[in-house]
Every structure is written in structure tokens, then in C-alpha cells.
Amino acid sequence: MKMTTPPICNYEDSDYQDTFWEAGGRDYEDAVEAVAINRLMPRSGSRLLELGAGAGRNSSRYRGFQQVTLLDYSHSQLERARDRLRCTQDPGNEYRFVAADIYRLPFAPGVFDAATMIRTLHHLSEPVSALLQVRRVLQPEAVFILEYANKHNLKSILRYLFRLQKWSPFTREPVEFVKLNYDFHPAAVRSWLDEAGFVLERQLTVSHFRIGLFKKVLPLKLLVWMDSTAQLTGDWWQMSPSVFTRSHTTQDGAPAAKVAFFACPACGEPLADTPPLIICPACGKQYPVEDCIYDFRLTQNS
Ligand SMILES: C[S@@+](CC[C@H](N)C(=O)[O-])C[C@H]1O[C@@H](n2cnc3c(N)ncnc32)[C@H](O)[C@@H]1O
């Protein structure tokens, strides 16, 4: 039977980490995201899932967790992450690397007590389906930190008012500014979180001063301080290009699975963790594990 899933924005072999972050003059964006993460993250926990982890830019920021699972569709991004973080199985300092589609998460219900999704929702054409998947693999009362690109930002509001932009920043529908790159309205994201079973606790507006001139003339420390202060208005209004939210799951849902961590992304059957090859006892699909990277990718729509 064919299961259709939405298209994936593929970062395979992309030089995103080098060109965008390391050579791209993004120290300010990286630093203010670190401030937001630090404000929102629980200080400790057991299993955290990082969705759309890329090359692991943020992964070491989750150091209070015993185990961090980096999930991304791009195998090459995960290789970068693995080389940066090293594949360790030491209790209390364990990273796992999983190549998979967010729309078909290969985990048993309720196995994580926290999840983050940063700079990734903006690639998803069906955000509610993705959020329902995240909800499924989280325990009741788990924490979820979600970042999204905000269409209701000051620049797009001014451009719209001065008729330099056709689409309205005030309406709830997503704007796809490049194929599979979306900006979302804060009210829409809040309603999707609610629909998927999350209770919103806090919002931080981030990257208020993402303007070339500011970044050129103002010292980084000052810019970061200014943004850190402005972030605190995030529950009142959201007019920055990036918004971080902290939510928790409701009481209902599966408690952490005792037996299986993984589940077949094709049929949902619990899977034993048997590297170098995991075979689904129900549907027979095979998933290789090579150099610490579990590969649960299915060909699209198989
Ligand atoms: C802009 S990068 C962000 C990486 C990282 N979170 C960061 O902030 O540095 C987005 C990442 O999401 C991943 N991604 C996009 N769609 C995905 C999907 N459907 N399933 C899994 N990963 C996906 C891409 O492969 C890419 O690595």
C-alpha cells in the first residue's frame, strides 16, 4: 500500500553549515538563538529529540539531557554532526544520529521527555501532520521548543504598508517565499500547536536586529544584549523574523515505552535495536546502521 507523505526539502550534500553559519556572518543570529534556548530549555532531562538537527549546531546546547537524538533527513548533515559531537554511548553523554523523515518518525510512542525543532518548521508544507508526529513520540507533560519563521515581522509589515510586497503579513495562511520555504503567522502556529495536543507556555521573539547595517556598526555583545532584552516581550507581540515557543504536552498519551525505542516508520511495529541491520518483524523492511547513523529513510511515498 502506498503512503503518501509531503515533499521534503532536501539538504543532502548541502554546504549550509559552512556557507550560512560559518562563513555567512551569522554570529549574531547564532548567539541570540543560544540565549533563547537557554531561557526555554529544562535544565535536565533524560531523552531529548532534536528534529531537523542539521549539522548539530545546537546539539551541545542540550547538555543537561542524558541522551540527545539528532534526527534529520539528510545523511550528509548527520555525518557532519557525528564528526563534530562524536558518537558516544557513555551513559550521561550519549548522542544518537537518525536519518528519517519528520512526517514518519521511527520511534515508539512516548519515548522522549523533550523535543526541539529549530529552523525546520519553515520547510514543512504540512505543519500539523509534523506536529502530530512529534506529539506521538513525546511523553505526557514533555517539553517542546519550537522555532518558526514569522511572516508578521516588522520588515514585511512595513513593506506591505508601503506597497512593496503583495502578500499580507496579517493573514493566517503561510507564505511560501521560495519552494518549500515558508513564513508562518504566529496565530496560525499557536492554533496548530493546540490542535496537535500542546499547551503553549511561553513565546520569545528573536533576531529583532537582523539588519546588515546594525550588524556592521554595532558590537556583537551590544546587539545580543539588545535582542535578549527585546526577546522578553514575546508573549505580548510577535514582530521579529524568528519566534521561539515553549509548550508542553497534555496529560494524555502513551507513557514511555519500556521495551522498544524505535518503531518501523512504514508500519509502526516496535523494532529491536540490532545494529548493523534492523529488520521489521511485521513488514520486513530493512534499516541499516552504519558508523553510528541509523537510516530509517523510506523512498518517498513507498
Ligand atoms: C535550515 S536547516 C536547520 C538545521 C539546524 N536545526 C540549525 O538550526 O542549524 C533545516 C534542516 O531540516 C531538515 N529537514 C527538512 N525537512 C525535513 C524532514 N521532512 N524530515 C527531516 N528533516 C528535515 C533539513 O535536512 C535540514 O538539515
The gist of it:
The chain has about 300 residues and is α/β, with parallel strands linked by helices. The chain has helices at about 15-20, 25-40, 75-85, 125-135, 155-160, 185-195, 210-215, 220-230; strands at about 45-50, 65-70, 90, 95-100, 110-115, 140-150, 175-180, 180-185, 200-205, 240-250, 260-265, 270, 275-280, 285-290, 295. It is globular and about 60 Å long.
Explain this structure:
The longest helix is centred in the N-terminal third of the chain and has 14 residues, at 27-40. Helix content is 26%, strand content 27%. The protein is globular and about 60 Å long. 40% of the residues are buried. With 302 residues, it is α/β, with parallel strands linked by helices. The strands form three sheets. Strands 1, 2, 3, 4, 5, 6, 9, 10, 13, 14 and 15 form an eleven-stranded mixed β-sheet that branches. It has a two-stranded antiparallel ribbon with strand order 7-8. The structure holds S-adenosylmethionine (SAM). Residues 8-9, 11, 52-54, 57-58, 72-74, 77, 101-103, 118-120, 123 line the site of S-adenosylmethionine. S-adenosylmethionine (SAM) binds at residues 8-9, 11, 52-54, 57-58, 72-74, 77, 101-103, 118-120, 123.
